[in-house]
Amino acid sequence: MVFPIVRDFTSTPFLKDSLPDKNPGSGVSSAPFFVALDQLGRSIGCPKDDPVAQRVLQDYGAVFVARNVVTPSVCLFSSEDEVSRFQNDATYNSKVIGGATVELQPLAMQALDAAIEDARQIALKITPLSGTEAGRRSYADTVRLWKTRFERALIHWRDRGRLSDNDVEKLRNLSIHDQVAKVLDLEKEGIFFSQDFSKSILYSASAPGASQHISMLAFDVVQYNNPRIRAIMAKHGWFQTVKGDVTHFTYIGVEESDLPRLGLVPVTMGSQVFWVPNLPTNN
């Protein structure tokens, strides 16, 4: 299917007509995010007894309500085969941006093209951070990025006496899923695994198989700190949705005023506004 480049969402009725009502009615769940999912006819596999999946939903869940694109049906992909099947079914377009080949779902790419053109009209640029990794990622990519943060933090906390050699060895030998779960437990004790060791690893690298980049609906922007760039990205349906990950934008495909109707709430951190799932854990 070929979609037109979306330059002004107010002139694109189909993006608004199929959104949930502003007032879904009485007696609904206290978590509007799930109400929005229900009204969109979507369900996702995020087991309530799996703390990793629940944390992924909390931190990365905005992608599940993106409009007129293919969204995942699980919080965590478990293998390269699963990711490849999803990406092949969703399809994606490639484009060289700032010297790097970026791959995104077709509508997301067209909206990014429109944003880049708008920026160019006022002598600004929108370019990818970290080259090709700014867009589509494979399952292996997410494992590799996880390991770069994970291994560095193991050494950091071992050298500072917070982890023993035995702790480090046990952590390395865990399955990927159990490794993520243990890291999240350690972070509750202040043993953080982010690049600067000051916050959760999930604000600098996703749990393997959970990245919005796997959905091909995420793009990391060099110029994230320019408010005019953020406004242009928002005009074309791109928003910051992962708290603390300031370079990361997610294609949701609606106007900002419609985000609350999709079960998202704004969280302000410094000068940045992040739109996250309206769940009790985010309130």
Explained architecture:
The chain has 283 residues and is of the alpha+beta class. It has 2 domains: 9-136 and 211-282, no CATH class; 139-203, no CATH class. It is built from 9 helices and 7 strands, in the order ααααββααααβαββββ. The strands form 3 sheets. A 3-stranded antiparallel sheet has the order 3-5-4. α5 packs across α9.
Could you name the key traits of this structure?
283 residues, 2 domains, three-stranded antiparallel beta sheet, 9 helices, alpha+beta, 35% helix, two-stranded antiparallel sheet
In short:
The protein has helices at residues 14-17, 32-39, 51-60, 80-90, 106-121, 139-159, 165-173, 176-187, 227-235, and strands spanning 93-97, 100-104, 218-220, 238-239, 248-251, 264-269, 272-277. It has 283 residues and is an alpha+beta fold.
Query: Biggest β-sheet, characterized?
Result: 3 strands, antiparallel
Spatial gap, N to C terminus: 38 Å
Count of domains: 2
Briefly note the structural class of the backbone: alpha+beta
Shape: globular
Helix content: 25-40%
Count of alpha/pi helices:
9
Number of strands: 7
Give the strand order of the largest sheet, numbering strands 1, 2, ... along the chain.
3-5-4
- Overall pLDDT score: 89
What is the alpha-carbon Rg in Å? 19 Å
**Unreliable sequence segments:** 1-18, 21-31
The proportion of residues in beta strands is: 5-15%
Order of helices and strands: HHHHEEHHHHEHEEEE
